[in-house]
Every structure is written in structure tokens, then in C-alpha cells.
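Side project, low priority. Logging it here so it doesn't get lost.
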Amino acid sequence: MTRRDPIVAEVRKHREAFAREHGNSVDAMVAALRREEASGTVLTVSFPSKKIGKALRRVAGKNRRPNQRVAPSAR
């Protein structure tokens, strides 16, 4: 049983309205989004990257061992 999330419902409503405005054509929707982006009226938010601790760097970095080959099984 899933709960109805009002935020998800609202996003879906706006998505469906946007698609309907452009005749459910992906090409038309992409063109509209590109025009809107090129107009410079769309604001974007950018945050600086987060610092990660030494433990996380060790896992993601050079101390991580590569997968080892599996020897063929004897038949």
C-alpha cells in the first residue's frame, strides 16, 4: 500500500499540463525547455562541493582493491 504524496501529485499535475500544452511531443517539450533556458530567466542554484572525510576518501580512492579474477572451475 502506497501513500499519496501531495507534492508528487502536484509535480505530476504540472508535468501533465506541460506535456498537454506541447501536444505530448517530446521534441516540442525539449525545444520549449531549451528556449526557456536560453532566455536567461531561469534561475539555477549552485552549491559548493562538500568536503569528505579521510575514511570516505580511502574507500573511494586508491586504497580500494580491484576485483580479482576468478579461476576457471575444474570439470
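Brief comment: The mean pLDDT is 81.
Revisit when time allows.
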